[in-house]
Every structure is written in C-alpha cells, then in structure tokens.
Specification:
It contains two helices and twelve strands. The chain has 160 residues and is mainly beta. The chain has a single domain, classed as Jelly Rolls (Sandwich), CATH 2.60.120. The longest helix is centred in the first third of the chain and has 12 residues. The N terminus and C terminus are likely disordered.
Length: 160
C-alpha cells in the first residue's frame, strides 16, 4: 500500500487562461523579485528536512499525443542575476496520461541552490532523444495546456 501524503497550498499562480506549452520555451514567474518575504518562506521550507516543497500542475491536457515532453526548470526571476543557472526539477510527459492529468515535482534541491530572490519556472520542450551525444530537436504536434500551477508544501509524515 502506498503512503498517503497530504499537501498544503503555499502559493498559487493566477493564470487568466490555461498556460499553453508548444515548440518554444515558456517562463512563468512564481515569486516576483520584489517579494523577499515569500522567497524567504519558500527557501526555509525547501531547506527544512521535515518538509518538502513541490510544484503541482493540474488540468494538464492535450488533444492528442503532443510528440514531445517538457523539461521543467526552476530559476531566479531576477533578470539582473548574472549567476542565474536554472535547476532541472523534472520532466512533464503526457505519454499514457489520463485526459486531464495532475503532476507533482519536488523542488527542494532546485530552490535551495538558488539565490533568495524571485522564482520562476521554465518549461522547455524536449524530444528526449540523443544521437551521437547531441539532443534531437523536438517536434511538437499539438500544444499542452496547464490549468493551474501551485507551490505546495508537504504536510506531516506519511499516513498508513
């Protein structure tokens, strides 16, 4: 039996319409650089061994197999940050997913390694194929829509 993990909302990103992922990379600001309190709170949760910070995507849909996956990176949203190296948080793939799927990606390591400024998530399409050490560019056949994006924290220990 799998343990049940409860997640508590921490921060929701208002999307006026579903976010569309296509052939180009898409960036979404989670925490503005001018909101140091939110960034400190997120960093504290990510650094706490008793809690886990996660990125939850809900309402993830495509009309057909999109033909690509998306690497998900987390980075500083401060454009003046010259050391802003995105950290890979996971890969979004709809292969075999239900018509409307939800995904959860742990962010602890990605957030702890960043500076205490703003935070953004980057969705970058990938084919997942490498030939002779070089990645094959993706061919996105149809876009993927994301209904909601939230930062959440794990609440308590596993329940049996």
């Amino acid at each position: 039996m799998w343990p049940l993990i409860l997640l508590a909302p921490l921060l929701a990103v208002d999307l006026p319409r579903p976010l569309e992922l296509g052939q180009d990379a898409v960036e979404v600001t989670l925490i503005e650089p001018g909101d140091p309190d939110a960034r400190r709170r997120v960093s504290a949760i990510a650094s706490d061994p008793e809690e886990n910070l996660v990125l939850r995507l809900r309402g993830v849909e495509a009309d057909e197999d999109p033909g690509a996956s998306w690497e998900i990176y987390v980075a500083s949203s401060d454009e003046a940050d010259g050391d802003n190296v995105p950290a890979l948080a996971g890969i979004l793939s709809l292969y075999g997913a239900p018509p409307s799927a939800a995904f959860v990606f742990p962010l602890d390591t990605a957030v702890v390694t960043g500076k205490p400024v703003g935070l953004k998530v980057i969705f970058r399409p990938t084919s997942g194929i490498v030939v002779d050490g070089e990645p094959v560019p993706p061919t996105v056949r149809t876009s993927v829509r994301i209904g909601s994006i939230r930062l959440e924290t794990e609440e308590g220990a596993a329940i049996r």
